[in-house]
Design brief:
This protein has three helices and nine strands; from the N terminus they run βαβαβββαββββ. Bound molecules: inosinic acid and magnesium ion.
């Protein structure tokens, strides 16, 4: 399929938001250690940049949730990979790439809160509140309310385009010439 890419957030603008989030998180968690749970695969680039700017101690674990097929949500979220270690008693910070309908995050929050973490917060690079159908709110959000389907900086369409350094809206061509 031919597609058109429109850059909507440059590397510099992303970097500015990541630095701001790292400052806020570092201030809020003073004197504590954060267990960062990176949601694969989309959040791996954001998390790598964010973690290197956070100034309190962190440990990292990974989990994977799947709900999308192409540009459409399947309406079901399932955990494909669970964390490797217990989160009980830990100050857990979930790091997500994008919250859209909120399905993935609501499923995840229900599951993780049953495991008795000391605290459970959410940081997302992109927060699309207009598309929300499940009542979840991130504690930290970089970019708010960008419409369209996004790729780059970790975000994919059918596993492609994660390596693009900026954020692009992907517009499928209609096939017209
Ligand atoms: P939600 O359950 O609708 O909030 O979707 C959450 C997950 O779907 C995100 O963590 C992404 O992995 C994926 N996703 C949602 N919107 C986009 C998008 O615009 N581009 C790429 N992935 C997306
Ligand atoms: Mg994701």
């Amino acid at each position: 399929m031919d597609s058109t890419f429109r850059e909507i957030y440059s590397e510099e603008r992303i970097d500015r938001e990541v630095r701001r989030l790292a400052r806020e998180i570092s201030a809020d968690y003073q004197g504590r250690e954060i267990l960062v749970l990176v949601i694969l695969k989309g959040a791996f680039i954001f998390a790598a940049d964010l973690l290197r700017k956070i100034t309190v101690p962190v440990s990292v674990d990974f989990l994977e949730i799947s709900s999308y097929c192409g540009m459409d949500s399947t309406g079901k979220a399932k955990m494909v990979k669970d964390v490797s270690h217990s989160i009980e008693g830990k100050d857990v910070l979930i790091v997500e790439d994008i919250i859209d309908q909120g399905l993935c995050l609501s499923v995840l929050l229900q599951d993780l809160s049953r495991r008795n973490p000391a605290s459970l917060k959410v940081c997302t690079l992109i927060d699309n509140r207009k598309r929300r159908s499940h009542p979840v709110e991130p504690d930290y959000a970089g970019i708010r309310d960008i419409c369209g389907f996004l790729v780059g900086y970790g975000l994919d369409m059918d596993q492609r385009y994660r390596e693009l350094p900026a954020l692009y809206e992907i517009v499928p061509s209609t096939g017209d010439t």
